[in-house]
Design brief:
Elements lengths: L11 E2 L9 E3 L7 H7 L11 H8 L1 H14 L15 E4 L8 H13 L4 E6 L2 H8 L8 E10 L11 E6 L3 H4 L11 H4 L11 E5 L2
Parallel strand pairs: 2-3, 3-4, 4-5, 5-6, 6-7
Antiparallel strand pairs: 1-2
Amino acid sequence: MINAPIKMPFITEHKNGKMVNMTAINTNPLTNKFCMAMYNSKKSTICKKCFAIRNMKRYKNAKNTYEYNSVLFSKPLEKNQIPFINSAICRLNGHGELINYDHLLNYIAIVNKNKHCMFTLWTKKISLINKFFKDNKKPKNLILIWSNEKIDTIEQPPKHFDKSFNNVKDNQKLLSAVNCDPKISNCINCLKCYTKKDKTKNIIEKVK
């Protein structure tokens, strides 16, 4: 009898855009209830301009691959499903958002298995972060970035977070403080979000 192959998460090696040459683990925002609620909300938030949703609508192969990850991560992974990350740095949620608490636990398991790799997790799900880190220490190789939904407002990192990521559009004073500009430098050459040596607390990007 032939055993079925073990279902492993798909690891993305980005080939273009500001994340060119970056390793990431992504999920599908189109089937994430939180993402779609924010995208369709009447409120003016950065989620309404979500690049990940635009990409999923354009690239069928990526949508199918990231949906595979969404299904996999939405429930606990087995120990033999935790991947080895062949990279020094890795982004969690390059596309997508935490689906549920199991999703976060799976990410933590990957972080703990890959001590050689520095992981950065973007999320708006403060409640899930607080739930886990209330009784658990944050791994040394994990950076947490609070993804601020408001435009033209700089938010300080909440408890447990290392940095905040903010988007500005019309506020001239804040536009002059932009320190994330893909036209000047892509992520791999900047690394503000990917190293604890950089003490920048507020990452600021101009709305595309």
